[in-house]
Design goal:
The chain is α/β, with parallel strands linked by helices and about 190 residues long. Helices cover about 25% and strands about 30% of the residues.
Length: about 190
C-alpha cells in the first residue's frame, strides 16, 4: 500500500502527469512521448551520479542514448509513499533490477555483474503549467555498489539490500550495524 499525502493543487492532476511520463519512459520506452510531457527547457539530475540533462536537446539525447533504452528489462518501480504539493510531487519507491546490462546513468563503465539490486529511490518532480519542469532523483549509491560486489559492506559503514528490506518492513531491527548499540541497553 502506498501512503499518499496530497497538498493544494494547481488545477492539474500532478500524479496523473507523473504516471503518464513514467509510462512513456519505462513502459513504452518512447523518448518523443516522454519529452512531450516536459516543459521546453526541462532538466533531470540523478544526484548521486550527476547524470541527466538540461534542455530539450540534451535531455532527449540522454534519454535516447543513455537511459530509456538502457535499463534492464526487469526494472521494476514499487511505490512506497507519495507527497503532492501545489506544484511538486515527491515519490519514495523501491527501484529494483538485475544488473545484466551496463546501466550508464547509474553505473557508468561497470560491466554487468548479473546481480539483483533493490534500492530505495526518491524522486522530486517539479511541474509548471501542467508539464514536468525538473526531476531530482536520489538513491544510495553505496548500497548499489555493495549489492553488485564493488564494495564490501562488512568492512564499511554501508548496507546493501537490507536497506530496501527495512524500507518495506519497518519492524526489521534498527541499529544492527552500530557496535556500541548494546552498550546503551537499559540506560
Amino acid at each position: 500500500m502506498v501512503e499518499q499525502s496530497v497538498g493544494s493543487g494547481t488545477g492539474y492532476d500532478l500524479a496523473a502527469l507523473w504516471e503518464q511520463h513514467c509510462a512513456y519512459e519505462f513502459g513504452e520506452r518512447d523518448v518523443p512521448k516522454t519529452m512531450a510531457t516536459m516543459v521546453d527547457e526541462p532538466y533531470v539530475n540523478h544526484i548521486p551520479m550527476m547524470t541527466g540533462g538540461v534542455g530539450q536537446k540534451e535531455l532527449a539525447r540522454f534519454y535516447r542514448h543513455h537511459f530509456v533504452n538502457s535499463n534492464p528489462k526487469d526494472t521494476k518501480i514499487t511505490p512506497v509513499s507519495r507527497t503532492i504539493g501545489s506544484d511538486q510531487l515527491v515519490d519514495e519507491v523501491l527501484f529494483s533490477f538485475t544488473h545484466n546490462v551496463e546501466i550508464v546513468w547509474m553505473l557508468p563503465g561497470v560491466k554487468p555483474t548479473g546481480k539483483y539490486v533493490e534500492v530505495p529511490l526518491v524522486a522530486i518532480i517539479k511541474f509548471r503549467d501542467g508539464k514536468l519542469c525538473h526531476e531530482h532523483i536520489y538513491w544510495d549509491q553505496a548500497s548499489v555498489l555493495a549489492q553488485i560486489g564493488l564494495i564490501d559492506e562488512t568492512k564499511l559503514p554501508v548496507v546493501g539490500r537490507d536497506q530496501a528490506r527495512k524500507l518495506i518492513d519497518e519492524k526489521l531491527p534498527s541499529n544492527a550495524r552500530m557496535a556500541r548499540w548494546v552498550e546503551s541497553d537499559g540506560k
